[in-house]
Design goal:
There is one protein chain. The protein is an alpha+beta fold. Helices cover 36% and strands 26% of the residues. The strands form 2 sheets. It has an 8-stranded mixed beta sheet. The longest helix has 17 residues. The termini are far apart.
Length: 182
């Protein structure tokens, strides 16, 4: 009975913690983004130099992060609406705390699964990998999920660590605001 009670208590605490929303920080728009780089899961190098002049959204994740997986459908909705907009770039970057092979397996898996059974479709998202967590550390982050938004002038506008409940609305609001700025 004690083990069952401890299990239930642990499950409740994990559930409460995974739904917690941390307050995001909107940075002083004069702070220029540091240089960074990562690799797509298909092997293409991505450098901050290649992305300058665009709104850059980097969402850090790991395959065992429940809040990360929970926000992916909203991220996919946002990405599908902006994938052809040359002014906006989105990358879901695995934080590098697990192997690239594990990150690839997750990206290649159907989005719904239970035990050994998977169904549904795969995510159609630009997944990437942060070797050695170098980009995560460059931004001073240490947890998943974490989100960075950089504007067209290469300024860090949002640095958020933690789950964002209405992720699609959050991203849309910020991107629309930054696109409207001259």
């Amino acid at each position: 009975m004690r083990i069952f009670t401890l299990f239930c208590l642990s499950f409740c605490l994990i559930s409460i913690n995974s739904n917690a929303q941390k307050v995001h920080v909107e940075w002083d728009s004069s702070q220029i983004s540091p240089e960074f780089k990562f690799i797509t899961l298909s092997g293409q190098q991505v450098s901050s130099q290649d992305l300058k002049g665009k709104i850059i959204i980097i969402d850090f994740w790991s395959s065992d992060c429940t809040p990360c997986r929970t926000s992916m459908p909203q991220m996919e909705k946002f990405y599908q609406q902006h994938r052809n907009d040359q002014r906006v770039v989105v990358y879901l970057v695995n934080s590098g705390w697990e192997t690239m092979e594990k990150a690839k397996r997750f990206a290649d898996t159907k989005r719904s699964s239970f035990l050994f059974i998977s169904w549904g479709t795969k995510y159609d998202l630009p997944f990437a990998y942060d070797q050695g967590s170098s980009t995560l550390k460059t931004f001073g982050l240490d947890s998943n999920p974490s989100t960075i938004i950089i504007d067209t002038k290469y300024r860090i506008r949002v640095k958020h660590s933690g789950f964002i409940k209405d992720f699609y609305d959050f991203l849309t609001k910020h991107v629309e605001q930054y696109l409207a700025e001259k």
